[in-house]
Each structure stands twice: as C-alpha cells, then as structure tokens.
C-alpha cells in the first residue's frame, strides 16, 4: 500500500464527510416554513420569544456557512445541540442508545463474516447437489429484505416456537445475546447470502488455478492446499464484499431496531423523523454517514494491504 | 484508389443491433411473473372483490373463507383486495425512483464520458460523495425535513441511486466513445446531439435497461422499507410495505396473514426482477454466458 493511496483515501473520507455534513445541514434549510418552528417540533403556535431564543441558539440568522460551521464544529467536539422534543441534549440521547446499535451491528457483522464464508466455502468444496442447494438458498434469501425477515423470524421463532424474546435488547451478556439474535439474523441474512455467493465463486476460481494443481502434484496435503493456497488467495474479494456488507448493516440497522423494538440509534432517528425533530435526525444521520464512510475506507485500505494491485486500480 | 471497397458509412442509419441470443426458460418465467405484476398494477382495483378500505367491525382478523380468500385484517378489511389494489402504490414509487435516477444518471454519465477532464472529475467526485450516503438514511432525512409521505423518500432515493447508474453507464460510454465509429461520425460532421441520440444511446440502451431492472428491485425494497418504518405511504393506503408493518402486531396474537401475504408479494416480485435482470445482462455483448 503506497502512501499516496492512503492519502487519497483519507482525503476522500474527509471531503465526503464535509460535503455530507453540508448536505445534512442544508436539507434542514430546505424545509418548508421557518426552521425555528420545526425545531420546536410540531407545537402549533410557539411563543415568539421562544422562537427568538431558538434562532439565537441554533445560529439561524447567521449566514449559511457560519451556521453550518457552528453546528459541524460542535459535532466534532461532541456537542450535538439540544433536542426540544425529547428535552435532552442530543449527545446524551445518542450516548444512551449507541451501545445497543453497536452490539446489534457487531453481532450481525460476525454472522455475515462467519456464516457467509463458511457456507460459500462448503458449497465450493463439496460441489454437486450441496452446491446447487446452497446457491439456490442463498439467492432466495438475498431477495428477502430485513423488514420482511424480521416479521418472518418473529412469527416462526418467537410465536410458533417460543425460543427467543421478541422485543427489547435485554440485560447482561446472555440476555443481550438472546434478545439480539433474531434482529441480528434479520439484518445479516441477505448479506450472508451475498458473501456466500462471492466466496463460492472466488474459491471455485482458485481451485481451478495452476498453483493449486502444482501444490497437489507436489504432494501437499489437501487441507493445507485449501487453507494456504485456496482460501488465502480467495480472501481478497471475500473481504471486500464483507466490508461493503458490514457498512450496509449500518444503514439498515434502523429497520431491524424498529421491527424488534430495540431502542438504538436507528430507532431514535426514525422516531425523531416522525416527530420532525431535526436536531436529532441531523446528528444521528451525520453519525451514520461518518461510520458508513469510515468502514468503507478501512475496508479499502485493508484490501489494498492484502493485495497491492487493488490500490493501483483503485486510486484514480 | 477506385479498387478500394466503398466504406460503409454509419450515417445510413442507426448502428446495427447486436445479434440476439435466445432467453433461457428461467428468464422467460421471471419476465412472465413481472408481467403479471405490471398487469396487477394497471388493473388491480378492477380485480379486487371488495373495497380495499371498507372496514367490517364484526369480521376482524378472519381467516380464509369464500368471501375473503386471504382473510381480513385487524379492522376487517379484505386482505386480497388490499394486496391487489396495493400493487399500483407499491410499484409506482420505485418505478419513479428508477426512471428519475436512470434518466439523470445517464445524462451525467454521457457528459462525464464525452467532455472528460474537469466535467468528468466533478461528476465522479460528486457521485463518490453521494455514494457515501446510504439511500435509507437519505430517505429518513428527507422524510424528517418534508414530513412523512412518499414524495420526499422518492426524491431522496432517486439521488441516492444516481452513482449506481452513472458509474456503469459512464464506463460503457467511455469505451463506446473510443470506438472508431464515433470519431468517424464526428469527421462526417454529425452534431454531438445526433451522435448521442442516434448512436451512443441506442448502443448503450440494453445496458441501461439492465441497470434499470436491477435498480427497480433495490428501489422496491427501499421504498417498502421506508413505508414499513412509518415514513413512506401513510395509512390507510394499501401499500405492501405498510401492510407488513400493520400486520406485525397480529403476528403476536396468531394472525400473521396480512404481513405474510404482503411480504410474499414483495419477495416474489424482487426475485422475479433479479432473475430478469441477470438473464438480460447475460444477453449483453460481453456478458457472461
């Protein structure tokens, strides 16, 4: 990985976050009506004195860029402003809920990585009917979105077979694990299918490679061939796709949280959007965008470290 | 000089189409399923046996019967009628997302590929930034700003889908642009709009169509998800994503029919659209056999 590739990717990360923050802040200015009224959050006839105080607090009368910088630099320092709807500081609201979202996304990410690569590898190595079956199953599962999978899982594994709790996030490690299992599966399942398919193709391609034939003819044991010559070479595309998938989990965690009644960041964003509490929506969406872009950048950098050829093709 | 064969001038008409391969059975079946769904979107309300919004306080959460083939929901509305009438609402919004993002994305891609230089860098850079914005987050943000309803999420998703279209079309347009027939047309004095409309676009059209098909599958899921979380279609609209969430409380009390049937419609349509998209892409020149 060259220094220039690293510099390009990091510059892109910063530029994307800056422009995204301008977009998020600007969207708020596009809102029909007086932004100060919106910040009060739907109260019919707000007191003019209150509106004036909000205008001053949110720097609504400042020029656009000054207002944006005030908001954005505050966010960088962890000061996300106050929510007038929840009557709390946005930073506190986020801090309370970040843990659940982190646990859910991490759980789903482990499922994507472990199940996706395992299913794909088994399909490629076994071949024949197993491969056909697993390929059909993973293709089918890829078409089931998180919200429908949530409903199906609740029906099958919480109502018909009461194995898992339906709502909330539980306490303690065991409680969290059993509460988050169904949401994590619902969130992960279509990416598990996708990663499995990429793994299968990638492993298949490597199995046909000349280096594998050479290793076998040298008498290298099959398990070593698979581990050292097939899986290691196939890991590049698998890692890249899993990374995109894990970034995607950040975007869809809101749906799983909503479906299973988990009070995480995604559920907070949806609830705030329904109440038109823009201070909260702005802060949480900025946070999601930063995480999404950061995960994608890390994946690019690690991919480049694994295989320097991607850096040459990737830097424009 | 006179012995050289007369050059075949491409100005005679459109560039000849690529020879076609026959579609396989799975793609044809997928096309048929998509066709049925399109017919439902057009004529669903005519087929519905009941008024989709007629409540019946005495017949709530009923199972299948001769009067209500798929049963009734928590307010006694006929589920079959709501699913049939919902086809239009559920498919029109994603279709609009695909139409807008494909049209705008193709225009951007052609500009980037044709003018190159700063235009290309600006378009590609801007789209890289948009790509950093997950569609669902953009849709929630738009709904927060403009209020719940389908209009804001449709606009947001149209923007979020731009990079997908533009990247693919730009790459293909760059390749097409470097072909000798394009410079020959330029030498023959064909104007830029003529080259774009009569030659580049027809040659790129199959690729654009495949991208639009694949995009429709994604858009359908995203729009339905936005409705599911309560920020898209509003009650009492018979939209499938909204029906899945309306039926969710019923699942806990043993009446999963509303959620399951509405969810099934979405999944079947997405599988058909994906199969159709990959079938069509195999037919593209250079597509995998």
UniProtKB/TrEMBL annotation, chain A:
InterPro entries membership: BPD_transp_1_N, MetI-like, MetI-like_sf
Keyword field contains Membrane: yes
Principal cellular location given in the protein's record: membrane
Top-rank lineage group of the source organism: Bacteria
Keyword Membrane set for record: yes
GO cellular component: plasma membrane
Annotated compartments: Cell membrane
Record-linked CDD domains: TM_PBP2 (cd06261)
Annotated keywords: Cell membrane, Membrane, Transmembrane, Transmembrane helix, Transport
Record field: transmembrane: 12-31, 102-125, 132-157, 177-196, 237-260, 280-306
Every ABC transmembrane type-1 domain range: 98-299
Bilayer topology: Multi-pass membrane protein
GO process annotations (BP): transmembrane transport
Matching Gene3D superfamilies: MetI-like (1.10.3720.10)
Pfam family, any one: BPD_transp_1_N
Family per similarity comment: Belongs to the binding-protein-dependent transport system permease family.
PANTHER family in alphabetical order: DIPEPTIDE TRANSPORT SYSTEM PERMEASE PROTEIN DPPB-RELATED
Descriptive protein name: ABC transporter permease
Organism of origin: Yinghuangia soli
TrEMBL record, chain B:
Keywords, alphabetical: Cell membrane, Membrane, Transmembrane, Transmembrane helix, Transport
GO biological process, one term: transmembrane transport
Organism: Yinghuangia soli
Membrane topology listed for this record: Multi-pass membrane protein
SUPFAM superfamilies registered for this protein in UniProt: MetI-like (SSF161098)
Domain of life: Bacteria
Protein name according to UniProt: ABC transporter permease
InterPro entries, A to Z: BP-dependent_transpt_permease (IPR050366), MetI-like (IPR000515), MetI-like_sf (IPR035906), OppC_N (IPR025966)
Any one cellular-component term (Gene Ontology): plasma membrane
Lineage of the organism: Bacteria, Bacillati, Actinomycetota, Actinomycetes, Kitasatosporales
PROSITE patterns, A to Z: ABC_TM1 (PS50928)
Principal location class: membrane
Domain ABC transmembrane type-1: 87-277
Bilayer-spanning residue ranges: 28-48, 91-115, 122-144, 150-169, 204-231, 259-277
Subcellular location(s) per record: Cell membrane
Protein family membership: Belongs to the binding-protein-dependent transport system permease family.
């Amino acid at each position: 990985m060259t220094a220039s590739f690293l510099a390009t990717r990091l510059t892109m990360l910063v530029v994307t976050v800056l422009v995204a923050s301008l977009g998020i802040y600007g969207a708020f200015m596009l809102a029909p009506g007086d932004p100060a009224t919106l910040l009060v959050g739907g109260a019919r006839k707000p007191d003019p004195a209150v509106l004036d105080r909000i205008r001053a607090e949110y720097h609504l009368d400042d020029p656009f860029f000054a207002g944006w910088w005030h908001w954005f630099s505050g966010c960088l320092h962890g000061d996300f402003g106050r929510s007038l709807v929840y009557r709390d500081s946005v930073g506190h609201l986020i801090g309370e809920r970040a843990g659940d979202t982190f646990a859910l996304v991490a759980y789903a990410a482990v499922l994507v990585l472990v199940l996706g690569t395992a299913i794909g590898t088994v399909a490629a190595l076994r071949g024949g009917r197993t491969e056909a079956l697993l390929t059909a199953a993973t293709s089918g599962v890829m078409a089931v979105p998180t919200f429908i999978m949530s409903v199906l899982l609740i029906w099958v594994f919480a109502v018909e077979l009461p194995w898992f709790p339906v709502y909330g996030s539980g306490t303690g490690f065991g409680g969290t694990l059993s509460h988050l299992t169904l949401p994590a599966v619902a969130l992960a399942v279509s990416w598990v299918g996708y990663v499995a398919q990429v793994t299968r193709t990638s492993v298949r391609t490597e199995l046909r490679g000349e280096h594998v034939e050479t290793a076998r003819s040298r008498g290298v044991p099959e398990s070593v061939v698979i581990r050292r010559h097939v899986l290691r070479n196939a890991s590049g595309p698998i890692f890249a796709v899993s990374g995109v998938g894990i970034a995607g989990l950040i975007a869809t965690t809101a749906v799983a949280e909503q479906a299973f009644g988990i009070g995480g960041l995604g559920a907070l964003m949806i609830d705030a959007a329904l109440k038109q509490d823009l201070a909260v929506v702005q802060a949480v969406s900025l946070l999601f965008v930063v995480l999404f872009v950061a995960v994608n950048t890390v994946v690019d950098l690690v991919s480049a470290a694994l295989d320097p050829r991607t850096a040459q093709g990737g830097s424009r | 000089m006179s012995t050289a064969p007369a050059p075949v001038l491409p100005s005679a008409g459109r560039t000849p189409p690529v020879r076609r391969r026959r579609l396989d059975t799975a793609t044809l079946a997928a096309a048929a399923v998509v066709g049925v769904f399109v017919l439902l979107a057009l004529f669903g309300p005519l087929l519905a046996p009941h008024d989709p919004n007629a409540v019946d306080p005495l017949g709530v959460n009923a199972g299948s019967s001769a009067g209500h083939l798929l049963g009734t929901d928590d307010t006694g509305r006929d589920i079959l009628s709501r699913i049939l009438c919902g086809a239009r609402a559920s498919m029109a919004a994603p279709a609009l997302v695909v139409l807008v993002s494909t049209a705008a994305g193709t225009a951007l891609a052609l500009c980037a590929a044709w003018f190159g230089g700063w235009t290309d860098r600006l378009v590609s850079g801007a789209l890289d930034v948009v790509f950093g914005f997950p569609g669902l987050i953009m849709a929630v943000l738009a709904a927060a700003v403009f209020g719940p309803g389908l209009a804001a999420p449709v606009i947001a998703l149209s923007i979020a889908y731009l990079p997908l279209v533009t990247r693919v079309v730009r790459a293909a347009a760059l390749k097409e642009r470097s072909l000798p027939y394009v410079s020959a047309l330029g030498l023959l004095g064909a104007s830029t709009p003529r080259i774009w409309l009569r030659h580049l676009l027809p040659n790129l059209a199959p690729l654009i169509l495949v991208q639009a098909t694949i995009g429709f599958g994604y858009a359908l899921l995203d729009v339905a998800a936005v409705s599911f979380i309560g920020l898209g279609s509003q009650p009492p609209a018979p939209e499938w994503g909204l029906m899945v969430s309306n039926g969710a409380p019923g699942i806990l009390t043993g009446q999963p029919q509303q959620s399951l049937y509405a969810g099934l419609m979405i999944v079947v349509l997405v599988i058909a659209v994906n199969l159709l998209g990959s079938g069509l892409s195999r037919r593209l020149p250079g597509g995998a056999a």
